[in-house]
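Design request, tokens follow.
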């Protein structure tokens, strides 16, 4: 599952994901604040350039702020999920990183890394003796 919560300022008190905290949990950890400081702009590495929430950034905005990176550094480390974690994750249908992790893989349950990282042996095992990897 996507479990990277380095944006959380009180990880010892975290009972799930920072964005799932109740108002009572937020008050207990951070006092009387209007917004939860562990989500949204507080986690953004470039808050002056942010237009909305980090999770709403377009690929172009991510490239402009962070360069040519895999995933979005301001959002939980979904890009670090393994294919098995991605397949099992309840957030996969709405996760922008799922396409990056699984690509166009015809057999995602067999993936050990990203489709482009498959060895020739893995390609042969999944797809037979074809010369090209059909998932890349």
């Amino acid at each position: 599952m996507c479990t990277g919560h380095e944006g959380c300022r009180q990880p010892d008190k975290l009972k799930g994901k920072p964005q799932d905290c109740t108002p009572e949990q937020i008050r207990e950890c951070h006092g009387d604040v209007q917004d939860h400081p562990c989500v949204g702009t507080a986690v953004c590495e470039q808050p002056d350039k942010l237009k909305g929430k980090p999770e709403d950034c377009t690929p172009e905005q991510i490239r402009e702020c962070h360069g040519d990176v895999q995933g979005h550094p301001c959002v939980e480390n979904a890009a670090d999920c393994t294919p098995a974690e991605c397949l099992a994750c309840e957030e996969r249908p709405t996760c922008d990183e799922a396409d990056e992790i699984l690509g166009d893989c015809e057999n995602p349950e067999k993936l050990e890394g990203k489709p482009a990282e498959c060895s020739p042996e893995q390609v042969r095992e999944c797809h037979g003796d074809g010369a090209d990897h059909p998932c890349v």
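Comment from the thread starter after seeing the answer: thanks! Helices lie at 23-30, 59-66, 83-88, 97-102, 120-127.
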